[in-house]
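Support case: user asked for a sample of complex input and structure output to validate their parser. Sending the pair below.
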Amino acid sequence: MRYVHLYFTCIKRSMISRLEYKKDTIVALFSFFFSNFCSLAAIYFILQAIPALAGYSLPEVGFFYGFSMMPIALDHLFSDEFWLVAYRRVKDGDMDMHFLRPVPVMFQVFAETFQPEGFGELILGAALITVCALNLTVKVTFGAIAVLCVGAVFGAIIITSLKVAMAALAFIFKRSGPLLQVIYNFSSYAKYPLAIYPWLIRTLLIFVLPFGLFISLPVDTLLYGTYNPWLLCLAIIGCSAVFFAVAAWIWTVCERRYESTGS
Amino acid sequence: MPTSKKGTVGNYLIKPISYRGKFAATSLGNLLTMTLMFGVPLYAAALVTLGVLGFLPGLSFPAFFAHLGLFLLSGLCASLLNDTISYIFGILCFYTSSGWGLNSLKVTLISFLSGTLLPIAFFPKGLREVVSRMPFAGMSQNPVLILMMKYDLKESLRCVALSVAWIVVLELFAKLLFSHAVRKVTVHGG
């Protein structure tokens, strides 16, 4: 309970400190609308150029794309600070202050930023899902809806865990941004049905970097009833628990190896 | 960019070295290490693998080396363009004192107009014409297409020339902007 209170206090402070720079806030607002406009335009161009993909119709591909934005957006809202840790903050000797406070360092990093830009992606994804769903004729089951919700929420936890684990390596190597970038970029493969990939990449995307597990498989379940939704829910939740536990463990191990670079 | 918010910008401005040159040197150094450490080995490995598997039929060597040379040139231009555009956004931070909004604007602008978000070939015709004449196309799309030999030599040369022209124009603009902005900068301690 104390941590919930602390989290909101920190986030409030961080928002206020950003809004302090008035001109920059205006640019940021403009950039927020502009970036969403760009993503929408990109989707529109894709849909115009690709009529169908590996037997999936246009609204189905759109649905995939929209749904893939959900876990990514949720992760974007809460864990953007880990990018800075991986790229810059350890290298610049900027992390020392967190080690002096009587609160876990990982919590402090989460509480450092809240990215409202994530809301834009959520809204955009939801809009795309709605538009495409209206053009689809599938029998919607309760299980399929459940597995989509589980995929979005626990998928976000898996993405965050990957981010935490990769950013933690910066404590040892001083800078792990490019590595985090490589891992994170695999999420863009998951924007399309797994069926379009050769088996090697498909296996990789289900068992190693499970972006396919929480994006493609739930959508397949909704569209074609390919998998048992409840078992899939269980698999995703289990997977996210394992990923988070491993990430937290990596973070603790690496954190102990932290040496300040001075500032 | 963060140097403006934290006030460390003052430390740089009082040093007797060119503020612009410092960034250019850093980015060229990064380019060199990245190319030697990752670019060359990965590219060689990919080339050998694809060659052995027979994915590169009818590769004629003079043309291949010409494209490789033009790629290196356009890659250098890409790095300089990236650096110049980042620098311009960096100078704009002198006016806003913070880089959050400008940085996200820069990232969006570059990822959309350079074809990293979606290849420029997908853009509708009118927009494609405009975007391919802007500096951003030279930052990632053109070098890659030159290396993949999707452009013939004439087209590749045209791309490199366009990039060079843009570098000159943007650099001049940056110089003018800097001489105005440096009078506005507020140094927040440091």
